[in-house]
Design brief:
Elements (H helix, E strand, L loop, with lengths): L3 H16 L3 E5 L2 H10 L7 E4 L11 H8 L3 E4 L3 H4 L4 E5 L2 E3 L4 E6 L2 H9 L2 E7 L3 E2 L6 H8 L8 E5 L4 E3 L5 E3 L6 E7 L1
Parallel strand pairs: 1-12, 2-3, 4-7, 5-8, 7-12
Antiparallel strand pairs: 5-6, 6-9, 10-11
Length: 188
């Protein structure tokens, strides 16, 4: 990692995300991210679904060939039915918040959005430079994404850990209305 600040921010993020039932990893480059994804138990079937045109997303697109080299079959998301209960999905997050262990997902297309909502395990990539200590410090990025114009995103959400819900008796269930597992990979 580049600085002590990055190290301490990541550790705080990791602690908060793990407390919410997720997992976090820091890697220096995309090859490290490919190693983590390929070795993850969720990839036992060696298949992963990605949002449409993920190969063109910078800097993440190069990761797809690295996963293919590791024997992972890449599928592009279509309608929600084609993604529902897929063993693993890979997308990118705009930023992460160390204070809460949350990531900000922002997309304009439903086919991209369902990868993070309907797969059983969601892998999210985040650039280390977009790891903020607190939500308030990410305010400018949030304003940019929600303002009218070319950067505007229509589907924006903060995600902290895997999907969880509880009934009136307070019985907690994981993964009923979304992924059972969330793996965030911060890339330096």
């Amino acid at each position: 990692m580049e600085t002590q600040t990055t190290t301490s921010l990541f550790r705080r993020f990791q602690q908060r995300l793990e407390a919410a039932g997720g997992e976090a990893h820091y890697v220096e480059d995309l090859a490290g991210a490919a190693d983590i994804i390929a070795a993850h138990p969720a990839l036992a079937q060696s298949e992963i679904v990605v949002p449409p045109a993920f190969a063109a997303r910078q800097p993440w697109g190069a990761l797809l060939s690295m996963l293919a080299e590791r024997g992972i079959a890449i599928h592009e998301a279509g309608d929600p039915a084609s993604v529902a209960d897929f063993p693993a999905g890979l997308s990118s997050a705009e930023l992460a918040i160390a204070e809460t262990g949350s990531i900000l997902l922002a997309d304009n297309a439903l086919a991209a959005r369902v990868v993070s909502m309907l797969t059983l395990t969601h892998f999210a990539l985040v650039q280390a430079g977009t790891l903020y200590p607190m939500l308030e410090e990410a305010g400018n990025a949030l304003q940019r994404l929600s303002a009218s114009g070319p950067d505007q995103r229509h589907y924006i959400s903060l995600v902290t850990g895997p999907s969880r819900t509880a009934d009136i008796e307070r019985t907690l269930t994981i993964g009923v209305q979304g992924p059972r597992a969330l793996c965030v990979i911060i890339v330096g």
